[in-house]
Amino acid sequence: MISSSSSPANLCLCLLCLCCLAIESTAQQKFKCSEGTTCRSLVGYRPYNGTTISDIQKYFGVRNLRTLLGANNLPISTPRTYRIQPKQLVSVPIPCICFNGTGVSNRVPIYTVQPDDGLYYIATTMFSGLVEYPKIQEVNKIPDANLIDVGQKLWIPLPCSCEEVDGEEVVHYAHVVQGGSTVEEIADEFGTTNTNIYKLNGIASNAQLIEGKTIDIPLRG
C-alpha cells in the first residue's frame, strides 16, 4: 500500500516504473493465429525451484504424463518423481485456441494465488516470463493489478499459435529469449530457419531480440 505521505520524488519514480512496464509489455510480439482454430502447442518452461515431472504435469494441467514425457524425449518408464532442477528447460504441451488474431492456452493452466504473490511475480517468476502480467489481468478481468486475493484461481494465458508456415503444418513453441542469444543460435537449437523466426516474430535482426521476451519458434510436426 502506498502511504499518503509519499514524497513527490517517490511518486515520480513509481510513475516512471509503470511507464517502463507499459512500454515493455507492448514490445512482445503477438502469436498470430486464425480465428476459431485449435491445436497443440509447446512452451519452454524453466521452474524457479526444483520440482518433479509429475508436479509440472499438474501445474500446467497436462492430462497425460506420457505427453509431457514425449515432449522432452523421456522414456515412458520415467518415474513420476523424476527430478527437474531449478531453471532446467522443460517443454510443456498445451492446448491452443485462437481468437482476436492471436493464440492462447485454452483455459489452462490455472494458478492458485499464494501469500505475497503479485501478477508481475506470477508472470515472470512462477511462469518464467512466458506471459506478461497485463495479459493475466485482462483474461481474468481483474480491475486492479495490485489487488488479487490469496486462494484466487487465475487462468494463465500462455502464448501459442496454430498457423501454418509456408503452407506446412508446424508445432509452435513459445521460447523465452535468454541473455546473449542470437536468432542463428536459436534456429540451430530448434532445427528451424532464421527466416522463419524473423518472419513469425516481426523482427529483422538480432538487435531486436529482447532478453526475457517470448518468441514463436516453428518446429517440424
Estimate the global geometry from the Cα principal axes.
globular
Please tell me the overall pLDDT: 89
The strand order across the widest sheet is: 8-5-4-1-9-10
Q: How many beta-strand runs? A: 10
Strand content: 15-25%
Helix percentage range: 25-40%
Q: Helix count? A: 7
Output the structural class: alpha+beta
Order of helices and strands: HEEHHEEEEHHEEEHHE
Uncertain ranges = 1-27
**Major sheet details:** 6 strands, mixed
Give a short summary of the structure:
By secondary structure, the chain is α+β, with helices and mostly antiparallel strands. Helix content is 29%, strand content 22%.
Descriptive notes:
With 221 residues, this protein is of the alpha+beta class. Helix content is 29%, strand content 22%. The protein has seven helices and ten strands. The chain has helices at residues 8-26, 53-60, 65-71, 119-126, 133-139, 183-190, 194-201; strands at residues 38-45, 51-52, 83-84, 90-99, 102-105, 110-112, 153-155, 159-160, 170-176, 214-220. The strands form three sheets. A six-stranded mixed beta sheet has the order 8-5-4-1-9-10. The chain has a two-stranded antiparallel sheet with strand order 2-3. The longest helix is centred in the N-terminal third of the chain and has 19 residues, at 8-26. It comes from Erythroxylum novogranatense.
Task: Please name the defining characteristics of this protein.
single chain, 221 residues, alpha+beta, six-stranded mixed beta sheet, two-stranded antiparallel ribbon, 29% helix, 22% strand, disordered N terminus, LysM domain-containing protein, LysM_dom_sf, LysM, signal
